[in-house]
Write a structure and sequence with these properties.
The complex is a heterodimer of chains A (223) and B (221). Chain A is α/β, with parallel strands linked by helices and 223 residues long. In chain A, 36% of the residues lie in helices and 24% in strands. Chain A is built from seven helices and nine strands, in the order E-E-E-H-E-E-H-E-H-H-H-E-H-E-E-H. In chain A, the strands form two sheets. Chain A has a five-stranded parallel sheet, with helices on both faces. In chain A, strands 2-1-4-5 form a four-stranded antiparallel sheet. The radius of gyration of chain A is 18 Å and the shape is globular. Chain B has one domain. In chain B, 85% of the residues lie in helices and 0% in strands. Chain B starts with a helix and ends with a helix. The chains are: A alpha/beta (223), B mainly alpha (221). At the A-B interface, helix 2, strand 6 and helix 3 of A face helix 1 and helix 5 of B.
C-alpha cells in the first residue's frame, strides 16, 4: 500500500461491445489521468460491468481502442493486467484457505510484498479475522477481503464493480479513506456505482447515453 | 515463473485440505475395477488376460472424474478472472493447474494401480511395465484434460460434454499404455509403446498449455 505512481493516462476511444449478439453500448469514449476517479452510472443491465471488464482486458471489444499512455493495451494484455486491480461481483476468496492465506496467494502471484497484507487487513478491519477460513466469512467480510486484495497489490488502476455493495458504514468510510489515499498517491479509480458519494471529486460517465447509440447502430446493421 | 510456483503451491494446499476429492478418484478406480472382476467371474486366466486393459481403462475414467473441477471452481468464485489479470502468462496458469492435477490424481492412481492389478492377477513380470506406462501416460491425460476442462467452462452439463470430448482423444494413450503392459505379460520386450507414449506426452506438453490458454481467455470474456 501507499505506492506513489508516476503520471499516466488511460483512455478509451469509440468503444463498443457486443454480448450475445446484441450491442451493449457503442461510441463510448472515456479518459482518466493519474490522481483522477471516474464513476460509471446507469441502471441495471446498462453495461457498467461489461465496460469495467472491457477496461480490464477481460471482455472483448467489438470496436474502438483502449490505450495506456498512448499504447494499445491489447498489444500486451499480461502487462495491462499487472498494472490494474479488479474487484468484480465475485470475491475470489477460497473457502478452504484462511483470510491471510488467501491474500498471501495473490501477493505471491503478483510478487507484491507480504508486509502489505497486514496493512491491508488493518485498513479494512480484518486483522481479527486473518486466521479464519474463508468459508465462515459473511458476504460483507468476504467482500472486504476482496477490497484488501485490491488495496495491497500495488496496481495504479483500480477497477471496482459496485464496491459499496454489502459494506456497512464503518467499511464504507474505510473504503473511502483507502480510495482517497490511492488518488492522492497518483492512482486511478474507475468504479460502477449507484448514487453514493464516496468520491465527490470524481468525473461521472453515464453509460445509458451510449445504449441509444448501440440501438441505432444495431438497427443500421440489420437494415 | 513466480506465479507458476504460487498457483501450484496453492492448488496442492487446497488438495491437501480437501482430501475427499483425491480419495474419491482412488476409490472410484478401485471400486470400478472390482466391479469388473465380479462381472467377469473368478477364472484366473481370464482375469489376468484382461488385467492390463481393465487397469488402464479404469485409471483413465478415474482421471476423467476429477477433471471437471480443474478450472470450474476457480471460474465460479472469480479466481480465474483474477488469475487472467495477474500479469501471469495464461499458458503458465494452465500448466501450473495441470501439474497440480497430475500430482494429486495421476500420482494417486499410480500408487493405487499395483493393488488393483494384484486383484486382477496381473502376472508379476508386468508390474514394471504397468507403472512405467502409467507414469508416461497419465501426464498426457491431465494435459488433454486441461484443454477439455477449459473448453467446457460455463456450459451446463459440462461433465458429460467433457467425457464426449476427451474419451476419443484419450484412446491413443489407452491403446499404447495397455500394449506396453501386454508386451510385458507375453514377455515380448519392446520399446515401441513407450516411445509412442513419450512422444504423445511431448506433443501434449507443447500444444495443450497454449490451447488451454486460448480456451480460458474465451471463458472469462
Amino acid at each position: 500500500m501507499d505506492h506513489v505512481f508516476a503520471a499516466a493516462a488511460f483512455a478509451g476511444t469509440d468503444l463498443s461491445c457486443r454480448r450475445g449478439g446484441r450491442l451493449v453500448f457503442a461510441g463510448l469514449n472515456f479518459g482518466i489521468n493519474s490522481g483522477e476517479a471516474l464513476v460509471l452510472r446507469g441502471p441495471n443491465g446498462s453495461g457498467k460491468t461489461t465496460l469495467l471488464r472491457l477496461m480490464a482486458g477481460l471482455a472483448r471489444k467489438s470496436s474502438g481502442v483502449l490505450t495506456w499512455d498512448g499504447a494499445d493495451v491489447h498489444d500486451d494484455l499480461p502487462l495491462h493486467g499487472s498494472r490494474l486491480a479488479f474487484a468484480g461481483h465475485l470475491d475470489a476468496v477460497k473457502p478452504a484457505l484462511s483470510v491471510r492465506e488467501n491474500l498471501a496467494f495473490w501477493a505471491d502471484v503478483r510478487g507484491s510484498s507480504l508486509t502489505d497484507i497486514d496493512k491491508a487487513l488493518k485498513a479494512f478491519s480484518l486483522s481479527h479475522l486473518a486466521d479464519l477460513p474463508g468459508r465462515v466469512l459473511s458476504a460483507g467480510q468476504r467482500h472486504r477481503v476482496a477490497l484488501a486484495r485490491v488495496a495491497m497489490n500495488g496496481a495504479q488502476l483500480w477497477l471496482l464493480d459496485e464496491p459499496t455493495n454489502t459494506l456497512d458504514d464503518a467499511a464504507l468510510s474505510a473504503l473511502q479513506g483507502v480510495l482517497q489515499r490511492h488518488l492522492q498517491n497518483g492512482g486511478m479509480v474507475v468504479m460502477a456505482s449507484h448514487g453514493d458519494t464516496l468520491l465527490p471529486q470524481a468525473k461521472t460517465l453515464d453509460v445509458r447515453a451510449f445504449i441509444a447509440k448501440a440501438r441505432t447502430a444495431d438497427l443500421e446493421s440489420a437494415a | 515463473m513466480r506465479s507458476f510456483a504460487a498457483i501450484l503451491r496453492r492448488d496442492l494446499m487446497l488438495a491437501v485440505r480437501n482430501q475427499g476429492e483425491m480419495l474419491m478418484v482412488v476409490g472410484f478406480f478401485a471400486i470400478a475395477a472390482t466391479l469388473f472382476a465380479f462381472g467377469v467371474g473368478p477364472e484366473a486366466n481370464v482375469q489376468s488376460r484382461m488385467s492390463s486393459g481393465v487397469v488402464w481403462t479404469m485409471a483413465l475414467l478415474a482421471a476423467l472424474l476429477s477433471l471437471e473441477r480443474m478450472f470450474a471452481l476457480d471460474f465460479e468464485d472469480g479466481t480465474l478472472d483474477q488469475l487472467m489479470l495477474s500479469g501471469a502468462e495464461p499458458a503458465a496458469v494452465v500448466l501450473a493447474k495441470t501439474l497440480a492435477h497430475w500430482l494429486t490424481t495421476g500420482v494417486a492412481l499410480l500408487i493405487a494401480a499395483p493393488a488393483v492389478a494384484l486383484s486382477f492377477q496381473l502376472p508379476s513380470q508386468a508390474y514394471g511395465a504397468l507403472m512405467l506406462s502409467l507414469l508416461l501416460g497419465t501426464p498426457t491425460l491431465s494435459l488433454l484434460g486441461a484443454v477439455g476442462a477449459a473448453l467446457v467452462l460455463g456450459s451446463r452439463r459440462g461433465g458429460v460434454l467433457l467425457s464426449l470430448l476427451l474419451l476419443p482423444l484419450y484412446s491413443p494413450v489407452l491403446i499404447f499404455g495397455a500394449a506396453a503392459v501386454e508386451g510385458a505379460i507375453l514377455g515380448i520386450a519392446t520399446t515401441t509403446p513407450y516411445a509412442v507414449l513419450g512422444g504423445l506426452l511431448i506433443l501434449a506438453l507443447t500444444l495443450c498449455p497454449w490451447a488451454g490458454a486460448v480456451a480460458l481467455r474465451h471463458a472469462v470474456e
